[in-house]
Amino acid sequence: MPKLFCVVVGHEGSPFSVNIAADETVDDLKKKIKMEKEYQFPADELHLYRVDGLTQDEDEQFVYKGTTIDMTTCSLDFFGEGKAKMPPLSFISERFNEADVNTRWKIHVLVVIPREIPPTGKRSIEELGEIVEASVNKAFKDRD
C-alpha cells in the first residue's frame, strides 16, 4: 500500500501521510485526506494535484526544485508546470509509480481546500461573532 505525503497549499502545517492502495481512486484519496485533517466540508470540494520537485529537508524546510520556499505564502500557480490536477476517477496507480512513492523526503500531493473554510475546519471566535452578528442583523431587518 503506497504512502503518499501531502501538503495544503497556502496554509501553515506540516506534510501528512495517507496510506492508499494503488487500485484506489483519487476520490478515495480525497475522502482519506478529509478524515485525516478532520475537515468539515465534503471531500469532493478538495482539489488534488500531483507535484514534481517538492521535498521537505531535514530542517523541515520546503524545497521546490532546489530553492527553499515558504509554503504558507505559495499559491497553486507558483508550481506552474510542476503540478498536474488529479481527476477524481483516476486510479492512484495511474498517477504514481513505485519509484515516485518510495522517494525519501518527497511531497507527492498538493491539497487545495475551499477558500471560505479555515484549514482546520474550525472557525475562530471572531469569525463566529461576525456570523452571529450578521444573522441577528438580518433577523431584525427581516422583521421590520
TrEMBL record:
It is found in: Host cell; Secreted. Coiled coil: none annotated. InterPro entries: Crinkler_N, Ubiquitin-like_domsf. Its main location: host cell. GO terms for cellular component: extracellular region; host cell. It holds the Pfam family Crinkler. Keywords: Secreted. Residues 3-112 form the Crinkler effector protein N-terminal domain. This is Crinkler effector protein N-terminal domain-containing protein.
